[in-house]
């Protein structure tokens, strides 16, 4: 499975049309070198198209007969020759069917309240928060996890019944906390309580539940810490609108929290450097990671927003 990941710039932009029926999303493409930086994902009667936002020209087309669905996780089957992929034609004598996924993800979560934009909740927010939840970084009791599994089962019917597919609906570390029969009973009961809830409402209810957690709207990066003895070996660097947090992957507890006004950083392709101001002194940390530049880019975007908000308050 080959994946393209695009970060959402402006949701559901409709500020121009180029011989198409509708534009679904404007995206800031910072990950896929095949496509321009600013693109539109557009849909019309013939399929889904990727449009260069600057030249207003299509750079890729996905006919509907090659698509399973237009949703957050768009699955597209494309032809492939032995060496070259194309989006609109099949090249070569030997054609092999492959699955491609395009993931739409919100990069910056600024005051995102579940239920205010149900279309964005359905297409973007639900899937990101579901993935975060399934990382297993939250302390949960079996009853709470069973209720969430019932909501996930309603929201994502394609994965089967939750009680029969626990690994798809319950974080792995929790599964052995109860017997299979106990999980089935609790999830079945929870599902009965939301029998009249449709899939879209289930997504919003799930988001409203996790919105109370400190990790809501957070991008979490796994790090194998081999340099800083102050922190555990297995950690997650968690970045959101309030600052940077370090989470112990085993205890599921935050071991450090740094607001942006106390933080300086530097990053490259192999490391993330943090300098935390503590009054008149400071502490410096180095974390070896192959996504240091990715983490640094996200920190930079949040810090710019925090800086602008500070100027407006002044």
Automatic annotation (TrEMBL):
Highest taxon, organism lineage: Eukaryota
Pfam families associated with the record: FERM_M (PF00373), IRS (PF02174)
InterPro entries (alphabetical): Band_41_domain, FERM/acyl-CoA-bd_prot_sf, FERM_2, FERM_central, FERM_domain, IRS_PTB, PH-like_dom_sf, Unconventional_Myosin_ATPase
SUPFAM superfamilies according to UniProt: PH domain-like, Second domain of FERM
Organism annotation: Adineta steineri
Domain FERM per the UniProt entry, residue ranges: 21-314
Gene Ontology CC annotations of this record: cytoplasm
Protein name: FERM domain-containing protein
Database matches in PANTHER family: MYOSIN, MYOSIN VII, XV
